[in-house]
Write a sequence for this structure.
């Protein structure tokens, strides 16, 4: 079976807002994400990982290279690629339930079926009892649960996540990471997760792609061979595979080893 | 417990101590004014040609409504019911101007908020139009449309349209781009973004604009009716003054402020509060 997400020879330049000079953000990116795979993209800030996500989401037009999802060439945003943003993404004037059902509403799914699915995802992310609350009544962690449920409820082919846990406190982040593992097992979604946190990249993903400083290049791919159901933070500190992968990613990000040695 | 104390306790429970204090302090200037007015009726510091008695102002209602047969004539805007006919005439103009001005102003405002080219195109002319107070258009409007409802509508639209335009534009500009992007990635169209992100997102700003529109529009209307109108409260005040019926002028002014106060406090303010609470713009104690 062909990969769900295929990126070939993708490069991107954009004019700097102030100087007008051309900025080389991405350089010849090639990557594939298989069905049901959890891939993380990690790199120093300014490595173009957010540019990559915006292109994949269809929010940024690209000229060089090709991007296909489920065999379709990407041309603008679409509900086959759901995005979980860093923060401030769920609509403040909609309740939790109406935010989660928003994608289905836009796809004109009948109300009965919509309500059934919304309930299913509210249960999945543990927001029972908060259906009729508005976002400003929720904690930061609950808002991100709601955002994840909203994206999954629209049933995308690939879920793209743009540093979704960067704005929550450390304790909440750990919980949300473990929750995401559970959710990925339950839904079998294909996930591309962008982060600058090495721990997070190693903990969540089956495969971690490391980007270089600008222009963003894919310098290495690190496999993390830990079964999804074994991933929880209590076990990880003593898991040699996790520490190996994390240290390797960290060295790559900090540029201490060249890609060939790794 | 004494009866006044019981009443005080009931009021505390109903409004709360802070609020009651505010209401009490705020009403002192009014009480002073009314007392002075009342005393002028007794001591005649100023002759009734300048300051009519409270009673004669009250009486003016019946003078103006003289010959008014009842509800049917009031609703039919009969000229025998001068007071109510002029009230409804002014209110009708406000409603008409709002019906035309709100959608147009909001529509163009959202467009300008979304699109830099549109806003660069419309902003300078908007500032130009806004710098001229509504009333300054009256002479020109009379030349163009004559005396009557077209002139008053034109004056009000000049005020309402630009206020709504700027408020809707700024409202849309203040919306986080992420909301728009999230609706697009959920499979929404550009139209979905307008109706489900820009319009609700700009709503608090739009409601503030409506409040301001009502304030400035109402004032512009009264002024326009005085010179360029053939009915309405402004017209009524002006023609009463020409006949030295000061009590009718007083009555008209009171009605004007009362209508404004009521619509602002009981329609627009609650609406503004509701949107800002709902949108989570104001921190509320749990």
């Amino acid at each position: 079976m062909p990969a769900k997400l295929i990126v070939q020879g993708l490069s991107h330049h954009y004019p700097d807002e102030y100087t007008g000079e051309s900025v080389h953000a991405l350089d010849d990116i090639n990557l594939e994400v298989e069905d049901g795979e959890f891939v993380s993209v990690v790199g120093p800030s300014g490595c173009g990982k957010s540019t990559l996500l915006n292109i994949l989401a269809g929010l940024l037009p690209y000229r060089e290279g090709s991007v296909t999802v489920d065999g379709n060439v990407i041309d603008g945003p679409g509900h086959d690629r759901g995005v979980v943003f860093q923060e401030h993404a769920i609509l403040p004037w909609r309740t939790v339930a109406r935010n989660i059902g928003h994608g289905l509403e836009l796809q004109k799914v009948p109300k009965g079926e919509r309500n059934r699915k919304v309930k299913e995802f509210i249960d999945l992310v543990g927001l029972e009892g908060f259906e009729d609350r508005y976002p400003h009544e929720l904690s930061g962690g609950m808002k991100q649960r709601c955002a994840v449920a909203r994206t999954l409820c629209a049933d995308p082919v690939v879920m793209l996540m743009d540093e979704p846990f960067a704005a929550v406190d450390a304790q909440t982040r750990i919980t949300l990471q473990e929750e995401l593992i559970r959710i990925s097992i339950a839904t079998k979604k294909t996930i591309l997760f962008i982060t600058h946190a090495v721990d997070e990249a190693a903990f969540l993903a089956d495969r971690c792609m490391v980007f270089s400083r600008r222009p963003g290049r894919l310098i290495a791919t690190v496999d993390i061979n830990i079964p999804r159901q074994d991933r929880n933070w209590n076990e990880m500190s003593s898991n040699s595979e996790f520490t190996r992968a994390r240290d390797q990613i960290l060295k790559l990000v900090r540029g201490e080893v060249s890609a060939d040695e790794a | 417990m004494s009866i006044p104390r019981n009443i005080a306790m009931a009021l505390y429970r109903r409004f709360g101590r802070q609020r009651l204090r505010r209401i009490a302090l705020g009403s002192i200037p009014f009480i002073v004014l009314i007392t002075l007015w009342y005393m002028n009726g007794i001591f005649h510091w100023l002759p009734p040609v300048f300051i009519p008695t409270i009673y004669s102002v009250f009486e003016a209602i019946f003078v103006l409504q003289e010959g008014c047969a009842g509800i049917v004539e009031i609703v039919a805007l009969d000229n025998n019911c001068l007071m109510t006919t002029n009230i409804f005439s002014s209110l009708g103009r406000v409603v008409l101007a709002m019906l035309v001005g709100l959608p147009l102003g909001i529509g163009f405002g959202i467009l300008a908020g979304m699109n830099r080219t549109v806003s660069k195109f419309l902003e300078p002319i908007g500032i130009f139009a806004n710098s001229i107070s509504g009333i300054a258009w009256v002479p020109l409007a009379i030349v163009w449309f004559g005396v009557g409802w077209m002139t008053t509508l034109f004056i009000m639209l000049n005020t309402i349209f630009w206020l709504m335009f700027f408020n809707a534009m700024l409202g849309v500009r203040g919306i986080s781009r992420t909301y728009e992007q999230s609706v697009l990635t959920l499979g929404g169209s550009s139209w979905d973004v307008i109706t489900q992100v820009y319009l609700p997102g700009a709503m608090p700003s739009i409601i503030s604009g409506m409040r301001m529109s009502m304030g400035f529009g109402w004032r512009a209307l009264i002024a326009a009716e005085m010179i360029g109108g053939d009915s309405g409260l402004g017209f009524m005040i002006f023609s009463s003054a020409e006949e030295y019926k000061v009590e009718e002028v007083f009555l008209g002014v009171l009605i004007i402020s009362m209508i404004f106060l009521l619509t602002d406090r009981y329609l627009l303010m609650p609406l503004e509060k509701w949107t800002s609470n709902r949108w989570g713009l104001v921190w509320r104690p749990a």
